Amino acid sequence: xxxxxxxxxxxxxxxxxFAYGLWCLEELAASRGNSDPALTTLINKLWxxxxxETLGWWEDLLVEHNPKVMIPDYIAFKEGRVSLRAIxxxxxxxxxxxxxxxxxxxxxEEPIPELLDKLAQIANQNLFAGTxxxxxxxxxxxxxxxxxxxxxxxxxxxxxxxxxxxxFSGNDGWGIPFPRAKIVAExxxx
Length: 190
Hints:
Elements: H1 3-11, H2 14-31, H3 37-51, H4 59-63, H5 67-78, H6 84-87, H7 95-107, H8 112-124, H9 136-150, H10 180-189
Helix pairs in contact: 2-3, 2-8, 2-9, 5-7, 8-9
């Protein structure tokens, strides 16, 4: 990341940082021909994070779709070291559903699991804490997400300007809610 991008990123809202990562995940999956309906469904659910006036409803959705969390939890469950009740999942009701979620997450090719982990960090790190000047926590997670994307040889990461409209100065660092179509419009302008 250039110094100019670092400066730009600090001015982008947490919601904008999340949207940038999600946009890149969606593009990367499409460029690799990943048309898994479960991934498409998940991506569509995650876009609701950028549209929502209400903060925090997505916490469990993101954690329970994070391969770094769910796969170890499923292994522990499968080995009988922990019960489904003890794991306390809100988006999974049965052992069959848990197995299906784990299988889906295990099927994802790198770097998609890493990107899902970073998206969960970006969206959840400042939910219940002050954001200060530019939210160092979400800035670091977004920077790490960008480093993962930049390491992909066959992926040309879009510039941050596609989400620059979402200002950190709005809504206590979260920015104003916006739909995916706003980024599509920004892409078409470029």
